[in-house]
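step 4 of 6: structure.
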Amino acid sequence: MDDATKPERREFLKAAGASLVAGFPAIISAQTVTNAIKVGLVGCGGRGTGAASQALKADDYAELTAVADIDQSQIDKSLENLKKLQRIADRIKVEQPKQFLGLDAYQKVIDGGVDVVLLATPPGFRPFHLAACIAANRHVFCEKPISTDGPGVRSVIETSERAKQKNLSLVAGFCWRYSNMIQDTFHQMEDGAIGKLLTYYATYYTSPVKPMPPASARPAGMSDVEWQIRNWYNFVWLGGDSLVEQAVHSADKIAWAMHDQPPVSCVGVGGRAIPAEGGNIYDHFEINYVYPNGVRAFLANRQIEGCYNENSDYIVGVDGTCTIGRGPVPRIEGKQNWTWQGEKYDMYQREHDVLFASIRKGQPINDGKRMATSTLLAMMGRMAAYTGQEITWDQALNSQERLFPDHLDWKGSFDAPPRAQPGVTKFS
Amino acid sequence: MRLRARSRALRSSPEVLMMPRARIFLLTSLLLPAAIAVDEHQVVVAIRDRIVAHATPGKPGPYKVTIPNTTVSYEMVPIRAGEFEMGSSISDPQAKKDEQPQHKVRVDSFWMQAHEVTWDEYRLFMFERQAGETGNKDAAVDAVSRPTRPYVEMSFGMGINGYPAISMTQHAANKYAEWLSAKTGEFYRLPTEAEWEYACRADASPNASSLDDYAWYSANSHGKYQKVETKKPNAWGLFDMLGNVMEWTLDAYAPYRSEPLQNPWVKATAPYPHAVRGGSWNDPAARLRCASRVSSDPSWKQQDPQLPKSIWYMTDAQWLGFRLVRPGKVPSAEEMYKYWNSGVEQDTE
């Protein structure tokens, strides 16, 4: 692109702002719709609070009316931060009786007269939170991943079907699906830009995420359950491990390239190189998937400080290679060369724009099957690495291992199982 | 005056893109009777004491600094005091409205970093372990707040060693300056917009036909930033003032006035917009002029899905970096505090 045709960045940004308004069916104008959509938030951390802001920005008549968390200070902080945003401040209407605390608080939000529920707790809670939302006829924004174990995935698949039958909208936080830049890139490949797909290699090498504090930091008298939930990322039953919680974004793109069809099986390696401080997750994985047509996909992740970091996708076809994440925009090199051009939408905002527009129009959308497939794709990799065995899709889908306890008591004791050991840990 | 008590617990807020160190320390703080509040002003006073003790009179010249206890270094180039016409004249066909009216500005002498701050340098600030700071704690260094650890890979695949650091907020650049001052015993800060333009102009009129010789921009950058110091420097020995990555300045982005000014600095009263200079690998030649101005924008944090948004990263500004200056005169602690603490680092949109 030469100087004459390439708009300068500032003009670009302004133009993008304009097209967001004009081009998005999602923005509801004040003239046409005035009835409020009441929103409840379950999980008031940084991501949940962000999701609430995006929900309220998606629709001028959406208001936040109920919230749930395990910690009042987290609720206070969340509401305070939301009220700082001028555009939505007057639609933060969560009085004290609608601020619910505790492990059953999600149900009180669902029952508290809301239309839409935003699920943003640690993923272990997701399957039964989602089931409760759909049982009560609520539309849902559901953060990724959607479960930490096989039974949870199956529950979500069932719940998603029920949502469909009930004409409820269910939007998943697999954000790349809502990125115009990545959508365009996958459309190029669907249109044959790299020819027949041969292999997909994805990397997710980052610094540690939410590392476990030392045991000495645990306040006297804090129960196992509370301690583990407060440090949820470090426990497989709550977070699913790094492959399922973080690198699942890459698994989602692999699934996308495979048209959301499952692989036959996978093998994988993984382990823990830095002290786990009482957590039971790995800090590195590398998984090799095989698909029915012999296509291979490789997914590697690591969360160790001081190492080489990269978050990329190399999608190789007979006619070319598509590269995402080596440089700011995706490109295709081969028989046809292509580089993405344009202005990025805010994909997180787009998720909510789409959700609220679907509710206003009465045209429900349902990401349920897709979000379950992508989560299970990462999860089967974890199962293969943990056990040291080849794991088939059918095995993973029918896994009986329940990581999340049936009954959870905030004051209860709970021994998280020891970290998995390949060759010793059995698949179940 | 105590503006904002600081302890590690107050460093940042939880973020999905960025690892929330705060989360850990919030938990730890449950154990303590009260969070240990550090007076930001005391931190600055301690750093200034170190700078004053370190000061050695001598003739100003270019010199090299190796960041203590590391092998990472950078060069400082002396810039003499002087006067220049800031902005563009009405007769300049490329001039934008925001570059006018052209006005006389006088700036005092300073040193400027010869190259944009690289990842080699910036990562020492991001990761104290890599700066060798986890063993022997240096109280003054340790008291400076540091970025949360990013969840994602912040070079976006464009390269680390020898490449310019990108995607940091102005607040992060300010804190880097404070940290580097504590480390080296030399006072650093971002350049004002006037200092930046004065240094970029270098008393010379850049020859537009040779832009390829001294700048990485959209026509030659292959869609990414490039290693620093791989093009020719300007007349004063500064590399990549134009192109490669845009550079933060200290100033809020504000209209010019016509009267002459001395050492101007428009201190920001809102998170946006700040003035950013120099154009980048992503810009056309028309943007790569010493007078050209860009205003920072909230959309530069688009990929941060959390609230509050990170005060450390601008995930979508993959063409934005900075370099620092060292003024000839060491300012008072009060002034240092103002340079290093914008007070407007939290987004409100």
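step 5 of 6: annotate
 - Chain B has one domain: 32-340.
 - The longest strand of chain B covers residues 73-79.
step 6 of 6: archive
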